Amino acid sequence: MILIKILFNGIIRTGVPGQGTAQAVAFEEGSPGRPGRIVAVGGDSDISALGGPGTERIDLGGRLLLPGFIDSHMHMAVTGHHMEQLKLNGVKSRGELVARARAYIEEKRLPEGEWLEGIGFNQEEFDVPDMPDAALADEISRNHPIILIRQCYHVAVANSAAISKIDPSSGYPGAERDASGRLTGVFRERGMGLLFGLRPAPSRGEIERRILSAAEKAVRTGLTSVHSIDLVRNADRESTLGVFQSLAREGRLPLRVCEGFSPHSPEFLSEFLEREEWRTPTPFFKLGFVKLVADGSLGARSACLREPYSDAPETRGKANFTQEELEAYVSAAHAAGRQIAVHAIGDAALEQVLRAMEKIEKSAAGPLSVRGLRHRVVHMMTGDLSQYERAGRLGLCADIQPAFLLHHFTMSGRLGPRTETAYAWKTLLDLGISLGGGSDSPIDTFDPLFGIYCAVTRQDRNGSPEGGHTPGQRLTVEEAVKLYTSGSARLAFEENEKGTVEPGKLADFAVLTRDIFTVPPREILETRAAMTWVDGKLAFLDLESS
Predict the structure, then answer these.
(1) Which stretch of DSSP H or E encloses residue 231?
(2) Which of 179-187's residues contact partners 24+ apart within 8 Å by CB, and which partners?
(3) How far is the C-alpha of 49 from the C-alpha of 347, rounded, in Å?
(4) Residue 348 vs residue 19, higher pLDDT
(5) Helix (H) or strand (E) holding 8
(6) How confident is the model at residue 197 (pLDDT cuts 50, 70, 90)?
(7) DSSP H helical segments within 250-367, as ranges?
(8) Which residues contact 425 (CB under 8 A, 6 or more apart)?
(9) Which of 497, 500, 508, 537 is nearest to 4 (CA)?
(10) What's the predicted TM-score (pTM) here?
């Protein structure tokens, strides 16, 4: 056998229990109809001896090689769209928000009547933490329909020009009103969908550009696979699916995508579950799971809690489904043998999910049990020990977003004493719950090294708070790396293909500028991907930052 490539003189963390490290890995490059796979892993001399005349040898220069990173929860197309939008992250006042938006309109020479979308503001960081409203958005412009999206993506603000486009017969679901009954311009949850439905649907060319922009940037961080949710909006669901399929078929996707979809009705769910795409996965694209959103976010106070918010005792948030509605969705997807991923941030939403899963578990067994289908709770951010124990007994998995803990520092007042059992990653691991690590991009950066840093330190970029928030829930570097490798691979039923460096698995690797297992945790923030290999091919190279 002529080996095509050998990476040698490295520190290879295989991720295989009990195997330790290696120095070299030999693999074949993928070709149409045949994925690139690992042939051997071991010492430099042993692996070098396997080479032949056609072997290419690449010196890693003592760098750390890990299995390719996998983001277990993001939104590729929306992330690509976000890269083109007005960025409002870090805005510290209402005045600064207006100034930044006006400058964007001028810089882009945005024609009158064209939509302006901004994303990333967090009013909790304002000097006066009041939610923006239509009056503020009107200060930006009355000649452009405007949507300003909060950092959490669960609440948005529209100006008068955008609101005027809403059909009054809709009843303005999710719209906030003042004491006199007037629309304030603030829209939550279902109201977000109402606003987004006003925008012109993107063309296939725009969708392709957004997906490729996000994918190419993701590869630069060491990501080789993502679990993405893009099949959401009715207006562009088919176009988005078609673009993914075309890119994968043409060999133009730079990383592998496991795609989820969100149904808007039980009838549509039943129809979509019959799609041929479920049965015809390809090496770079597959339909993987059904996404349901049980509640909102802590930032918008729309996450559904069992007890009122500590800083807003008049509300507990709101569930997006009744118990019966959620169970109807869950049972339909489960009966079809499809994995379910349910967004549940509040402990009341988590309770709904647990009850729905416990109900189907009574009549399910084997591969069609909750454990067999590896149903996921997305976020599993708040709860108590008894709820986590029930999740463990059921065999539920969890998609966690370590960087979300940073938002908690400006919102700890939301939960009060309940904050001590929030973001309980170590507890979940100890209970045997399979965890995958994600970003929910564009909510947070999809750089997995930042997620690893957050999981290990439970601190922000400035090292605050000292010792980390609830430090007993910190993960080791090894545990944190597994979130983005073998953990996420298992959530997609791909542990036999990805997540570790061993013979027979896909030749997907991330080579880092520093050994994050030996440097001080703070230095993880300064670590970058030096190489990314996908399917045995070099997808990204930057040795200058090493």
Answers:
(1) strand 223-231
(2) 183/134, 184/133, 184/134, 185/132, 185/133, 185/134, 185/135, 185/137, 185/157, 185/158, 185/159, 185/160, 186/131, 186/132, 186/133, 186/134, 186/155, 186/156, 186/157, 187/155, 187/156, 187/157, 187/158
(3) 56
(4) 348
(5) strand 5-8
(6) confident
(7) 266-272, 323-335, 347-361
(8) 400, 402, 435, 455, 473, 475
(9) 537
(10) 0.93
Contact 432, 379 (CB under 8 A): no
Going through 232-300 in order, the beta strands assigned E by DSSP cover 256-261, 285-293
Contact 148, 88 (CB under 8 A): yes
With cut-offs at 50, 70 and 90, classify the pLDDT of residue 546.
low
Using DSSP, state whether 343 is helix, strand or coil.
Answer: strand
d(CA 20, CA 14): 7
On the CB side of 270, CA atoms within 13 Å amount to 6
What is the DSSP secondary-structure string of 145-195?
-EEEEETTSSEEEE-HHHHTTS-GGG--TTEEE-TTS-EEEEEETHHHHHH
Which residues, at least 6 apart from 13, have a Cβ–Cβ distance to it below 8 Å? 21, 64, 65, 66, 481, 501, 517
Query: Do 405 and 424 touch, CB atoms closer than 8 A?
Result: no
Nearest to 422 by CA among 302, 303, 300: 303
Can you tell me the distance from the alpha carbon of 545 to that of 63, in angstroms, rounded to the nearest whole number?
A: 12
Find the mean pLDDT for residues 66-85.
96
- Which phi and psi angles does 299 have, rounded to 5°? -60, -35
Query: pLDDT at position 455, please?
Result: 98
Burial of 505 (0-12, 13-18, 19+ CB in 10 A): buried
DSSP 345-404: -SHHHHHHHHHHHHHHHTT--GGGSHHHHT-EEEE--S--HHHHHHHHHHT-EEEE-TTH
Tens digits of residue pLDDT in 442-501:
999 999 999 999 999 999 999 999 999 999 999 999 999 999 999 999 999 999 999 999
Taking alpha carbons only, the member of 237, 296, 298 closest to residue 262 is: 237
CA-wise closest residue to 36 among 529, 509, 487: 509
Check whether the bond before 442 is cis (ω within 30° of 0): yes
pLDDT at 54 exceeding the cut of 90: no
d(CA 375, CA 338): 9
Domains of the chain: 5-68+504-541 (2.30.40.10), 90-150+155-188 (3.10.310.70), 202-491 (3.20.20.140)
User: Please, are residues 65 and 11 in contact by the beta-carbon 8 Å criterion?
Assistant: yes
Q: Where are the beta strands (DSSP E) in 23-102?
A: 24-27, 38-42, 56-59, 64-67, 69-74, 86-87
Q: What angle do CA 336, 297, 172 make, to 5 degrees?
A: 85
Share of the chain above pLDDT 90, in %: 85
pLDDT tens readout for residues 8-50 = 999 999 999 888 899 999 999 999 889 999 999 999 999 988 8
How far is Cα 396 from Cα 536, in angstroms, rounded to an integer? 33
